Amino acid sequence: YEWRKVDQEFDAAWTAAIEIGREIRREEMEEEAHRRAMDGSDTLMIFMLKAYDPARFREPRGQTSVDVNLSVDLRSRSVEDMRAELADLVRRDPGLITGANAEDDDANGFRG
């Protein structure tokens, strides 16, 4: 370490050698991770896919998914009341129902 302090050329060569060693080790680890992922590690495969193609495989940042179980007694409600409530919910939060469009709404009788 003392030579690194006094010899800039030696220090640069040392740093380059460390980086080359790290790159070789990184490549070896990637190869081993790939082998393990292909041999059946689903978790490892998920992480590798997220690393190689984040746009396709990484969860959007700032978004979470929530599963909700809802139980509603529909026997006491009229279809018109439920349609009006649904239209009001969608008006307040247009992204509430994904994959739907105005044509679907019209075809199904949902009008806001």
Question: Overview of this structure, please?
Answer:
Helix 2 packs across helix 3. The model has no long low-confidence stretch (mean pLDDT 77). The chain has six helices and no strands. The chain is mostly helical and 112 residues long.
Short description:
The protein has helices spanning 2-6, 8-38, 42-52, 54-57, 79-92, 102-108. By secondary structure, the chain is mostly helical.
What features would you highlight for this structure?
single chain, 112 residues, mainly alpha, elongated
| Helical fraction | 55-70%
Q: Describe the biggest sheet? A: none
Mean pLDDT across residues: 77
Order of helices and strands: HHHHHH
Low-pLDDT parts are none
- For the secondary structure, the number of strands is 0
Strand content: under 5%
Structural class comes to mainly alpha
Q: What is the C-alpha radius of gyration, as a whole number of Å?
A: 29 Å
List the helices and strands and how they pair.
Layout: H1 2-6, H2 8-38, H3 42-52, H4 54-57, H5 79-92, H6 102-108
